[in-house]
């Protein structure tokens, strides 16, 4: 049976040794799940997505994430595009309007309205007629972004793929215009990944607050503020590291 090496941070490796966690069984289970998710994406990308439900195979994606993908397919069809691209996935995220990824963008000081304006510059003025009998497919960059979103979710230990993971997948995908726009506006992968962790912590805090009767007047603004509070010490650490790196280079 072939072997795959798994490298762990020192602290985690020590904790695994002390607790006797069955690493092989856990890794095998996680890899099986990840392979199934990526296979589902590739089958969807290589086949002809049903326009009524292009996410039928993407069962591990949340309801909002599946809505984003459906909106992306609809947008690509309305534009007469030959394939669904990362720009359509990003546009679907904006069109859905209530997902966690948008709160994360605001928390890292990226205005979704500016993202929309950048996307509009890509939209052709006169959409060509879609070719008859040629169903829409996910293009290579879009399929890559979806696969990377699975990788991000798996790396965080999540058993679902949400819009926050899709945002990270778009940022990490190097070729599509969706990721290029996000990176040009300042969406740095490491900080955005930290923002996702902070967002989930802030969401849990707000949910507990609402259950205790302390519902904020503006939940969306409260969530963005909670993400920024969680991010503040992280940003400060990153700034210190950058300063230290700059001094050492001098």
Oligomeric composition of the shown chains? single chain
Strand content: under 5%
Instruction: Estimate percent helicity.
Output: 55-70%
Average pLDDT across residues? 77
Question: Helices and strands: which structural class?
Answer: mainly alpha
Total DSSP helices = 11
Please give the number of β-strands. 0
**Sheet with the most strands, sense and barrel status:** none
The N- to C-terminal Cα distance equals 50 Å
Return Rg in Å: 20 Å
Which spans have pLDDT < 50 for at least 5 consecutive residues? none
The SSE order reads HHHHHHHHHHH
Overall 3D shape: globular
Structure description:
The chain has 250 residues and is mainly alpha-helical. Helix content is 67%, strand content 0%. The protein has eleven helices and no strands. Helix 5 packs across helix 8 (163-172) and helix 8 (163-172) crosses helix 9 (177-184). The longest helix has 31 residues, at 219-249.
């Amino acid at each position: 049976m072939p072997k795959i090496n798994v490298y762990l941070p020192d602290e985690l490796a020590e904790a695994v040794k002390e607790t006797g966690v069955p690493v092989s069984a856990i890794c095998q289970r996680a890899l099986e799940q990840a392979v199934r998710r990526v296979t589902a994406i590739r089958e969807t990308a290589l086949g002809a997505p049903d326009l009524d439900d292009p996410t039928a195979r993407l069962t591990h994606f949340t309801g909002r994430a599946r809505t984003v993908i459906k909106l992306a397919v609809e947008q690509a069809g309305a534009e007469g595009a030959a394939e669904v691209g990362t720009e359509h996935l990003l546009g679907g995220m904006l069109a859905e309007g209530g997902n966690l990824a948008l709160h994360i963008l605001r928390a890292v000081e990226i205005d979704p309205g500016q993202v929309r304006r950048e996307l509009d510059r890509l939209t052709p003025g006169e959409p060509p007629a879609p070719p008859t009998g040629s169903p829409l497919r996910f293009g290579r960059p879009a399929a890559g972004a979806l696969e990377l979103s699975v990788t991000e979710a798996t790396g965080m230990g999540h058993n679902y793929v949400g819009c926050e993971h899709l945002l990270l997948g778009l940022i990490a995908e190097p070729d599509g215009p969706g990721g290029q726009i996000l990176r040009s506006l300042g969406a740095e992968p490491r900080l955005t990944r930290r923002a996702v962790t902070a967002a989930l912590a802030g969401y849990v805090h707000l949910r507990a607050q609402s259950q205790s009767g302390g519902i904020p007047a503006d939940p969306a603004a409260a969530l963005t503020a909670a993400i920024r509070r969680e991010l503040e010490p992280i940003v400060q650490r990153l700034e210190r590291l950058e300063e230290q790196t700059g001094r050492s280079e001098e």
